[in-house]
Write a structure and sequence with these properties.
globular; 5 helices; 113 residues
Length: 113
Amino acid sequence: MTKLCLAVSSVLLLSVLSTGISALVVVVYEHVVATCVLSSLAFFLERGRRPPFISQILCYSFFLGFLLVAVFQSLRILGLQYVAATYQSVALNLMAVVVFVIAVLFGQENLKF
């Protein structure tokens, strides 16, 4: 389901980018909408079950948000300007394989034949 949503979003983003809107503007709009939706859901659904807010959680949230989300979204949308959505959806399917190979190289996963 995740791959289907990413493929649909790639096609929609390609159509938006073809109208002339900057790719970085699209990334900012995506993050503003996602922040509003997720923060309101977390506020109402997780009320009373949240851990205490400490600086370590703030640092982890910042680095995760910056490195994983902002860089990935920016590269994916900028890549749509140079590569068709079909090729990008194929590359998204290879993402799990690349993550597994990196995990094997760093010793986080065991590979047994």
